[in-house]
Amino acid sequence: MTALSRTDKRAMDEGRKLPLMEQFYSIQGEGYHTGKAAYFIRLGGCDIGCNWCDTKLSWNPDLHPLVSTEEIVRKAVASGSKSMVITGGEPLMYNLTYLTALLKDKGFLIFLETSGAHPMQGVFDWVCLSPKSNKPPLEEALRRADELKVIVQETKDFEWAEENARKVPAGCHLFLQPEWSRYKQIIPEIVTYVKKNPKWSISLQVHKFMKIP
User: Fold this and answer.
1) pLDDT of amino acid 3
2) Mean pLDDT per segment of 10 residues, for the chain of length 213 residues?
3) Nearest residue to 44 (alpha-carbon basis) of 85, 3, 94, 7
4) How far apart are CA 77 and CA 138, in angstroms?
5) Which one of 67, 80, 141, 171 is most buried, by most CB atoms within 10 A?
6) Does a structural domain hold residue 45?
7) Is 162 helix (H, G, I), strand (E, B) or coil?
8) Cα–Cα distance between 174 and 201 in angstroms, integer?
9) Is 22 in a helix, a strand, or coil?
10) Cα separation values, 33 from 63, 152, 164, 195, Å
11) Helix axes 69-79, 97-105, angle to 10 degrees
12) Residue 107: which domain range?
């Protein structure tokens, strides 16, 4: 990240300002809560760098303005939603304690989408863990996961999925999601795998089929 003023650096460290890529009201398109209305906050900055990432513009936090957390929450409240998805990028690169406290004060249910590679900072009602093998999740993220969503790009990713499934709590919901650019090639393998291993469910990026954010 480029050099920040002392004031901005302190505000970001405290979570009072965050690099905001976008925020919008839409429909959850993936995982356990697919089809439900939710307000999304997408933070800029990611140090995972998946080659298949469909939001590579989120990687560099310098491309996204530092926005006051109060302003982010004000717009979320104005949407009328009571469900908040915090995503990225990798949102846990930042201290989310202040943001989640403000959201809780406004009565939001808070859903986090994370790779789990950074310490958990904040209060969340639901944690969707999407672990990446090039920067594996921390143990605390595995323990906290309500939902495990593994992106499947090639056959070897099933092994990565099972490795993480052994580490999450017994009640964690397990999902395999085809990497979007290889959907046609990989979905038959996923279908076969889930039929043989029914503890898993399939997650599809239905927002892309619906052509909505």
Assistant:
1) 73
2) 83 95 97 98 93 84 94 98 97 98 98 97 98 97 98 97 98 98 97 98 96 93
3) 94
4) 32
5) 141
6) yes
7) helix
8) 6
9) strand
10) 30, 19, 20, 22
11) 30
12) 6-210
Paired with 42 in beta bridges are: 22, 87
Number of folded domains that form the chain = 1
Q: C-alpha angle with apex 175: 86 to 38, nearest 5 degrees?
A: 30
CATH of the domain at 61: 3.20.20.70
Any domain includes 1: no
Q: Residue 2's pLDDT is what?
A: 66
* CA 75 vs CA 11, 40, 210: distances in Å: 19, 11, 25
| Predicted local distance difference test score (pLDDT) of residue 46 | 93
d(C-alpha 11, C-alpha 5), whole Å: 10
Cβ within 8 Å of residue 12, ≥6 positions away = 4, 18, 19, 66, 94
**Residue labelled with tokens 């503890």:** 199
- List the Cα angle 66/70/72 in 5-degree steps: 60
Q: Is 12 among the domain residues?
A: yes
Distance CA 213, CA 201 (A): 23
Q: Write out the two tokens for 152.
A: 């499947």
CA-CA distance, 5 to 124, in Å (whole number)? 30
